[in-house]
Amino acid sequence: MAVTEDSAHAEAANNMEVMQAKTNKAELLRKLELGVVPDHEIKQLIRHELDRRLRWGYKSTHQQQLAQLVDFAHSLRRMNIADEVDTLDSNIYEVPISFLRIMNGPMLKGSGCYFPHDSTTLAEAEIAMLDLYCERAQVRDGHTILDLGCGQGALTLHIAKKYTNCRVTAITNSVSQKHFIQDQCIKSNLTNVEVLLADITKHDTSHSFDRVFVIELLEHMKNYELLLKKISKWMSQDGLLFIEHICHKTFAYHYDPLDEDDWFTDYVFPAGTMIIPSASFLLYFQDDVSVVNHWTLSGKHFSRTNEEWLKRLDANVDTIKAIFEASLGSEEAAVKLINYWKGFCFSGMEMFGSNNGEEWMTSHLLLTRK
């Protein structure tokens, strides 16, 4: 009887702790939405959660570390190619172009940029990263190019302008992104670009391409085996696939909260919509493609990218507020979205700046078709 009562008391105490954690988390998120948490406190809170993630991710022995990675790779093979794509797009990527023109650089590159020098500007860093993609993918004038998950078309438009004999096919599942890229092609008199509106997980084509680019799309997929099998069919016999993905240098994981106290993990990206691979993770998915080269970039580049975005956001808050208010229909919603994007930038700054850029970073891979 005593054992039963003790168990009941322990369970009740645990339930109370869980409820308190949920209450504390909800209150913090409410304050973040209102913008009443000072910037330095936000950074401290993020660093605390990142430290917890590192303690969770690093294992005490190499064998345990390897087993975690292999087990995780095997688990993804039992999943769909992707989940929750519509939720992710509606919450994060369908934002007014006028806002992106303020926060991003002139190319509207929504992923990491490359800062070879301290004096490099955001505009220069956008071009530097796009040129790095083309160099590492060995792009040549006259190639057929496929840009999967093309965003606002930074890479598509860069290649179309720089390599005028290339034919570029861009795929997005965002209507606004498609229209924006098409408008830019008209303004720049580009006739070598085709933009397709499609869900990559369901898309199919009989065409093959000399170069296929997958830039920061992999993180929102689940079953890498099925995804790479699909992409391999779109590569020409001598074609190359270039992939960029963010990663942790050692471990891979579903980007889900660690526990009830973890407010940070699903603050930017909804739970269930993202994976953080390890730097070497794709080496476990060479069923239909083969890795022929592999690079990593210090997380300092992506941290600096987010820092530059935040500077532009902070310098134009009133203008951005008017844009969001016109789009969303209320001042309250506009303020909430501004603070969301500030949190987005802080998250990237702190995460990729951890340990001087040597924890979370960017991975580049070049692959051939088997």
SSE layout:
Layout: H1 2-34, H2 39-57, H3 62-76, H4 85-93, H5 97-103, H6 122-136, E1 144-148, H7 154-162, E2 167-172, H8 175-187, E3 193-197, E4 209-215, H9 224-232, E5 235-248, E6 253-254, H10 265-268, E7 275-276, E8 289-297, H11 300-315, H12 317-328, H13 331-353, E9 360-369
Parallel strand pairs: 1-2, 1-4, 2-3, 4-5
Antiparallel strand pairs: 5-9, 6-7, 8-9
Helix pairs in contact: 2-13, 11-13, 12-13
Family: Belongs to the CFA/CMAS family.
Organism: Sinopodophyllum hexandrum
GO molecular function, one term: (S)-coclaurine-N-methyltransferase activity
What would you note in describing this structure?
- The chain has 370 residues and is of the alpha/beta class.
- It folds into 2 domains: 1-34; 39-369, Vaccinia Virus protein VP39 (Rossmann fold, 3-Layer(aba) Sandwich), CATH 3.40.50.
- Helix content is 50%, strand content 16%.
- It contains 13 helices and 9 strands.
- The strands form 2 sheets. It has a 7-stranded mixed β-sheet. Strands 6-7 form a two-stranded antiparallel sheet.
- The N and C termini lie far apart (65 Å).
- The mean pLDDT is 92.
- This is Coclaurine N-methyltransferase.
- Keywords: Methyltransferase, S-adenosyl-L-methionine, Transferase.
- Pfam families: CMAS (PF02353).
- Its EC number is 2.1.1.140.
- GO terms for molecular function: (S)-coclaurine-N-methyltransferase activity.
Question: What would you say about this model in short?
Answer:
By secondary structure, the protein is of the alpha/beta class. The chain contains 13 helices and 9 strands.
